[in-house]
Design brief:
About 40% of the residues lie in helices and about 15% in strands. About 25% of the residues are buried. The chain is elongated. Helix 4 crosses helix 6 and helix 8 packs across helix 10. The protein has 10 helices and 9 strands. It has 2 domains: about 150 residues, 3-Layer(aba) Sandwich (Alpha/beta knot), CATH 3.40.1280; about 80 residues, tRNA(m1g37)methyltransferase, domain 2 (Trp Operon Repressor, Chain A), CATH 1.10.1270. It is of the alpha/beta class. The protein binds 3-(4-methoxyphenyl)-1~{H}-pyrazol-5-amine.
Length: about 250
C-alpha cells in the first residue's frame, strides 16, 4: 500500500515513519510512504505557502495553488482514482471502522494543513474525504496523518507478526482488551491472576473474555452498542451488570 503525504514539514514525519513496525513494513516492501514538501510546489522567490485571510481576523491561511499543484503533479493519471484525505477537526471522526475501510485501498493521499487552516477551495475541489482523529485542536495535520497511516498500515497483511495478527483478530469485535501480564509472577507483592498460570486454555479464554466485557461496560459502555457479542457474551454481560450494581 502506498501513502502520499503532502506537508510543509516532511522532516518531522520522516523520523517516526522510519522507526518501529512502519519502518520494517517499508523495508519488507509492504508499505510505501512518500513525503512531499508543499513548499517545493511554489513559484515565487519567497516560496510562499500562506497568506492573510480574506475578511480579516488573525492568523494565516494556506494558499490553494501549491497544494493543488503538488497533489496533481504527484498523482498524475491516478487523480480521480486515489482518495485524497484532508486532515481537519471538521472531518468525520476516524475510528477502527474507517481504518478498515481505508486499508482496502492500494493508494491514499493525505493533505496536512498548518497555520489556521487551508483555503476552503482545497476542501471543496481537491479533497475527496475529510478526517478528524478526535475532538481536540492540534497545530497541524501531521500527527493526524501519522495516526491514520499507523492504524491503516497495521491492518495490511504481513505488517504485523503472526502473534499480533491473531491478537488483532481476537479484538475485531469492538471490545476493549483484557489485561496483559508477563513475568515475574509476583512483583512487589502484586500477583498475576492465578488462572493465567494454570495452563487451562479454556478457563484462560473465558477469563479474558469476561475481563474484556467488564472493562468495556465500565469504561466505554458506548462501545457495547456496536460490539459483536455472542448469546454467551450477553449472559456474561448481564451477570457482570448485576455484580457491578448496574
Ligand atoms: C491547520 C490542522 C489540521 C489543524 C486537527 C485535526 C484534529 N483531529 N484535531 N486537529 C488539525 C488538522 C488541526 O491544520
Amino acid at each position: 500500500m502506498r501513502f502520499d503525504v503532502f506537508t510543509l514539514i516532511p522532516e518531522v514525519m520522516h523520523a517516526y515513519l522510519q522507526a518501529s513496525v512502519l519502518g520494517k513494513a517499508h523495508a519488507a516492501g509492504l508499505l510505501q510512504v512518500e513525503l512531499h514538501n508543499i513548499r517545493h510546489y511554489t513559484h515565487d522567490r519567497h516560496r510562499t505557502t500562506d497568506d492573510e485571510p480574506y475578511g480579516g481576523g488573525g492568523g494565516m491561511v494556506m494558499k490553494p495553488e501549491p497544494i493543488f499543484e503538488a497533489v496533481e503533479s504527484v498523482l498524475g493519471d491516478e487523480l480521480g482514482r486515489v482518495p485524497i484525505i484532508l486532515l481537519t477537526p471538521q472531518g468525520r471522526v476516524f475510528d477502527q471502522a474507517v481504518a478498515r475501510e481505508l486499508a482496502v485501498q492500494p493508494r491514499l493521499a493525505l493533505i496536512c494543513g498548518r497555520y489556521e487552516g487551508v483555503d476552503e477551495r482545497v476542501r471543496e475541489h481537491l479533497a475527496t474525504d475529510e478526517l478528524s482523529i478526535g475532538d481536540y485542536v492540534l497545530t497541524g495535520g501531521e500527527l493526524p496523518a501519522l495516526v491514520v497511516i499507523d492504524a491503516v498500515a497495521r491492518l495490511i497483511t504481513g505488517v504485523l507478526g503472526d502473534a499480533a495478527a491473531t491478537q488483532q483478530d481476537s479484538h475485531a469485535d469492538g471490545l476493549l482488551e483484557h489485561p496483559h501480564y508477563t513475568r515475574p509472577p509476583e512483583y512487589r507483592g502484586w500477583k498475576v491472576p492465578p488462572v493465567l498460570l494454570s495452563g487451562d486454555h479454556g478457563r484462560i479464554a473465558a477469563w479474558r473474555r469476561e475481563q474484556s466485557l467488564r472493562r468495556t461496560l465500565l469504561r466505554r459502555p458506548d462501545m457495547l452498542a456496536k460490539a459483536k457479542l455472542s448469546p454467551e457474551d450477553e449472559e456474561r454481560l448481564e451477570r457482570i451488570r448485576e455484580e457491578e450494581g448496574l
